[in-house]
Amino acid sequence: MVDIEIKHLYFGFDQQGTQLFSDINLSLSAQWKLALIGRNGRGKTTLLRLLMGDYHYTGDISQNIKFAYFPQTIQDPQQLTYNILQTLSNFDFWKISRELSLLGLTDDILWRKFSSLSGGEQTKVLLSLLFVDDISFPLIDEPTNHLDQASRQQVAKYLREKKQGFIVVSHDRNFIDEIVDHTLSIEKHNVLLQRGNFQVYDDQKKQTDAYEKEQNTQLKKEIKHIKQASKNVATWALERENETNDSASRRIAKKQAKRSKAIAKRSESKVEAKAALLKNIESVSPLTLNFTPTTHQQLLKVENLQLNYDKPLFEPISFDLNLGERLAIEGNNGSGKSSLVRYLQNNFAGTATGKMYRPQNLAISYVRQNYNDNHGTLAKFALANHLSYEDLLNNLFKLGLERHVFQNRIEQMSMGQQKRVALAKSLMTPAELYIWDEPLNYLDVFNQEQITHIINQIQPTMIIIEHDANFLATTSTKTVHLTTPSSKKPDSLDK
After folding, report:
1. What does the alpha-carbon distance between residue 51 and residue 57 come to, in Å, rounded to a whole number?
2. Alpha-carbon span 145 to 442, nearest angstrom
3. How far is residue 43's CA from residue 52's CA, in Å, rounded to a whole number?
4. Cα(169)–Cα(34) distance, integer angstroms
5. Which residues of 254-290 are buried (b: 16+ CB within 10 A; e: fewer)?
6. Each residue of 336-366: pLDDT tens digit?
7. DSSP letter at 117?
8. Cβ–Cβ < 8 Å for 479, 494
9. How many CB atoms lie within 10 A of CB 352?
10. What does the buried/exposed string (b/e) look like for 28-41 if buried means 16 or more CB atoms within 10 Å of the residue's CB?
């Protein structure tokens, strides 16, 4: 049964007039558990917004279902969370309470300002509102961002057991492999719909790319041979024409020269024809990191540290960070991880007990969890942050940002594109210590692999907050666990 029909869809809104979608035709069923995948900036969120009717487009989109979108837009985050939810949807309090409990939260969170919640707590609250709606068809955009592992598993369980279908955007391949039965991939120049999860798509994609690369290699060899033969014939014809006065020989030489030009033209046609088949092959360039090793062997020492707002955020912790170590800070959503890294940079608004040692004038490169205040053109961004504009563009290109996006304002970019701007800045900034708060959020699989590779290659001194267990297992050298004061489990430091 076709519940969503897309016919001859055309849409684009970047400053260069580039089309995100050109003549897209799709028939989708509301019974499918569909993963919408593709590299950052390809239009995944845009496609969901087009289904919601948020943008003007050319073509036709028809559906016989009602959509519900996540994450919902928050107009005034300074309001109480409960009031915000009330403005977004009508709901029964007990249902919201149930969903919050399943996600590891209590009702108390509803009576806090939305702005005071951690990124993970905000995600859980908005997911709870989505989950109590059992009528609408969910359009879910990056539901695992900011979520700890336990919460990711809870969301996966909910979606896996959900009888109704949905469309979900996520770069967490383990997550989507658990929950979907169809994939819709936005490639460079087309969309690809197929049955199966991400692993099925990825296996097929690798096979297709490998075959096309092999064919391309063979074709290049053939073209090189044809071009060389054409060149040889042309050279011989020219020499023959110049060295003979016989009219018959000159006519033959001219025919050979004409034939050589035709051969060259046919060879170029073959190149162009094959190039069209290779447009969807993804390429990834290695990154560079401007790590500046410090003369200090110990960059941080923390003793019995406890941070407080109205109450303690976590049990007292102690740890040290030495040159070349990569410290992972772990803890449930709301346990104070982001607050801790702000404190380490002397930017914490609450109170603290305990001691911290840090060398003066330590050069720190920081990737924030939220970077909504980045705005303007890339040229102005580079100037404001004392970066080389040319080097910034080069790094963004390595991160997969397409050149036609370079002229867009940062606030007009997708979240994945904005995240790459923030990462490019951090990679370029000379630093003795890197502090990255959830660096993988909004990044596609290719970018995640790039980040993992550069960390393991350079081995800089780092503090990392990230909920991706595989990433931490391959990049971190030690871990500090944050536990809430209500927990009876002791804090530990794994070295």
Report:
1. 11
2. 7
3. 14
4. 9
5. eebbeebeebbeebeeeeeebeeeeebeeeeeebebb
6. 999 999 999 999 999 999 999 999 889 999 9
7. S
8. yes
9. 15
10. bebebbbbbbbbbb
Question: In terms of CATH architecture, what is 298-494?
Answer: 3-Layer(aba) Sandwich (3.40)
d(CA 307, CA 318) in angstroms, rounded, equals 12
CB 483 within 8 A of CB 456: no
Q: Which pair of structure tokens corresponds to residue 339?
A: 């607050």
Q: Look at residues 162, 102, 167, 165 and name the one whose alpha carbon lies nearest to residue 128.
A: 102
Q: Which residues pair with 435 in a beta bridge?
A: 366, 463
Residue 307 structure tokens: 């941070």
d(CA 492, CA 331): 12
Exposed / middle / buried, residue 399 (Cβ in 10 Å: 0-12, 13-18, 19+): buried
Domains 4-203 and 298-494 share a fold: yes
Full pLDDT tens readout for the chain, 495 residues: 679 999 999 998 765 566 889 999 999 999 999 999 988 888 999 999 999 999 999 999 999 999 999 999 999 999 999 999 999 998 999 999 999 998 888 989 999 999 999 888 999 999 999 999 989 999 999 999 888 888 899 899 989 988 889 999 998 888 999 999 999 999 887 899 999 988 888 888 778 777 777 776 776 677 677 667 767 766 766 666 666 666 776 677 667 667 766 766 666 666 666 555 555 567 788 999 999 988 899 999 999 999 998 889 999 999 999 999 999 999 988 899 999 999 999 999 999 999 999 998 899 999 998 888 899 999 999 999 999 999 999 999 999 998 888 999 999 888 889 999 999 999 999 999 999 999 999 998 889 999 999 999 999 999 999 999 889 999 999 999 999 886 444 444 443
Q: What are phi and psi of 408, to 5 degrees?
A: -75, 150
pLDDT tens-digit map of 58-69: 999 999 999 999
- 209: burial class by Cβ within 10 Å (0-12, 13-18, 19+)? middle
Name the residue ranges covered by the structural domains of the chain. Answer: 4-203, 205-277, 298-494
The model's pTM is 0.78
Start-to-end C-alpha separation, the chain:
55
Q: DSSP of 319-383, one letter per residue? A: EEEETT-EEEEE--TTSSHHHHHHHHTT--SSEEEEEEE--TT--EEEE-S--TT--S-HHHHHH
Residue type, 217: T
Domain 4-203 fold is Rossmann fold (3.40.50)
